[in-house]
Amino acid sequence: MVAPPPDPPWWRWLTGRAGAAALLAGFWVLLAASLWHKSQTFDELGGVTAGYTYWRYNDYRLDPENGNLPQRLAALPLLTGKYPFPPLETAAWRGSNVWALGYQWLYQMGNDATGMLRRSRAVCGLLAVALGALVWIWSRHLFGPAGGLLSLLLFVFSPSFLANGALVTTDTAVALFFLAAVAGIWAVLHRLTTARLLGSALALGALFVTKMSAPLIVPIALLLLAARLIARRPLPVALGPWRCTLARRGEQGLAFAGAALVHGLIVVIVIWASFGFRFAAFAPAGGGGQLFYRWEVLLGKPDPLTLLSQLDLDPAQTTTVEKLLQRPELQTEWWAPAHLQALEYLRQNVLTPAQTQALEQKITAPPPEWTARVIDFFRRHQLLPEAYLYGQSYMLRFSHLRNAFLNGEVSLGGWWWFFPYTFLVKTPPVMFAILGLAIAAALVRRRETDPGAAGPGWYETLPLWALLGVYWAAAMLGHLNIGHRHLMPAYPPMFVLAGAAAWWLDGWLGASRVIRTAASSKPARLLGAVLALLVAALAVQVLAFFPDYLAYFNCFAGGPARAYRHLVDSSLDWGQDLPGVEHYLERHPTTGPVYLSYFGSASPNYYLSSAQRVRYLYSFLGQDNPPPLMAVQLPVDGLRARLAELLRAHPDYNIVGEGRTGTNQIGLALLQNPDTLRLTGGTYLISASMLQPVMYQVQGPLGPWNRRYEEAYQTLAARVRPLLSPEAKVRLAALGQHTLPEWQLTLTFYDMCRFARLTAFLRERKPDANIDYSILVYRLTDADLAKALDGPPPPYGHDFLPAVLGGHAGAP
Length: 812
Fold this sequence. Notes:
The structure is a single chain. The chain is α/β, with parallel strands linked by helices. The chain has three domains: 9-264 and 415-539, no CATH class; 302-363; 578-804, no CATH class. The protein is 52% helix and 8% strand. The protein is built from 34 helices and 15 strands. The strands form five sheets. A five-stranded mixed β-sheet has the order 8-6-13-15-14. It is globular and about 95 Å long.
């Protein structure tokens, strides 16, 4: 038998450790370069701020619903720098408001937000590098050096990982630790050693402090355990000095039960260690406060004010309660401070002792859902850290109803086909062709007569299939349809399995097999050449798309220029292109006003040097958007100088109210002048996520424009119209008809409804340009605006909210 010729030296280098290291180093550089001129994406503000406070204050009140571990890693390079942090006495810190606190830290305290994010992203990119290395190792183990190289190339040139790999989020980290945990569990199931046991348990612990979806590993592990026991393979055991081989299922089952117990103990230890071995989310020196959402909200307990309807109230009590509930400050989320104050008032002045006792029993009743009851049990007995349980409760509570957009439709519950669709349009078509070659190679290899050429079978690749199957099932059955990034853990096992396609290269480059048949045939050599061309085409296509990887869409969606019609949020527009806005305004000078509606938690004022000529439309979160009507308090001492400073800072406002609010305080009401309140012709820059009717409060114009929204808009427009008058007397007379909080609420909803009507008009119009595919440019005249805001209403769509919310949809 003649031995096959050795592989060329260059091929051995490329498929070896040196080649893999070079590819991963280039991948890391590409990650950093693609984000170098990108602004902070939405979730990064929370991740970097929370991680910093975990290290510096040993306090876990901020953003506990996201992974402790990736947030800590992202904050590591910031610990050595001098980045002043807001005082712990602020309302944002005491209220655990990571968005307000992070905004203040990054953009209002003189810190270098761009440099801070670049450092954090560089560290997060190392997690992506580690994931790529694991993909290479696993594929090389299954499919040889060529398979390892192919899988690594598919990973390196994946738009999804190039877009998200270095962001300060949990998405890449959870993909890494899901794959590592599955690999560790599979290794333990086949050889039980101390090193494998500890390595697998630590990977599992890292997974549980990375993402709240970590419990999905349980059904995966059970599937692998069942397959292992069915296979009836002996189990070598080497735990310290104890060496043996277990052949019986009962013995193996006991060994695996012990291993599972060790895994559970280490996971619990890792969780406690991540939160400083302390139950309370608040550090003793942190100044106290409260979590962002009350526990009653997260546990799904009904609003105490709604429970009043279940009491036997007399007519006088009913009238008092109904009048109280009409107050504007109570039109907020359940269990808000205003609700609790109103409840206390009712206890003291309206309810009888028997009614108060009945109400208390309803309030303190166990949570209605069994999952909430389990978490409440763990919380009351302090079995896991409070912040960790808060994070799990948050995900269970808010993952069922989330605003989602897909192909022109809006939903609160999502669609089962959301992730299959995102996978179809955000995966390069070349990848599908390579997967086809991998399947064909696997089928052909199984027909090989040489047992050594058969390659790995279903059993050897089972952990990859188990991860794919369980994760895909969970994604399709879930309701969190806000971004393709949530599918990232499904990509690495697919890349590993795609390494099977490298078998077609055997006929070209030589192989380690002594006998080869199909791989040496002409059709196989042709498919090998096709595979090489496909990989080259993938690399060219992806590199040509630099640096806008978050906005990657393939030809099935019409390319990135039409992507805004299909998906938004983190699938396309996550707030990353504020520098692109600056560059666009520099290249396209305008004479009229420039309006910006921005989706994100970053500060446009920080990124736009021309921000002084940018006017803000309704935005989400709208950190830089000035409220139309604001109340300020100034000390009496030095009032004249402070007042002059206030008016210089807000030149578009007029003082419309004044009154003493305390011994040494003067309260002022400032209203934007009519020219600022109304919209005029100009350049309108609108984030794709804001163009679609999805980024609103549930009480706002969420979903297609409809008759209910039109009626609310016309009512609000009529109420606000006097404030647009150039005559001060008319404006002051209108303001006197309602209280300041009522006017603030009216103007907030008017701003939302006006913007919603405008975007309903713009969705029927092709943008004049786009900025890096995520921000759309419209050049509108006064006539355009008159048609959009004052003309006939846009075509009515379906009003889905009353049905979804049981007939309790709030009017905007």
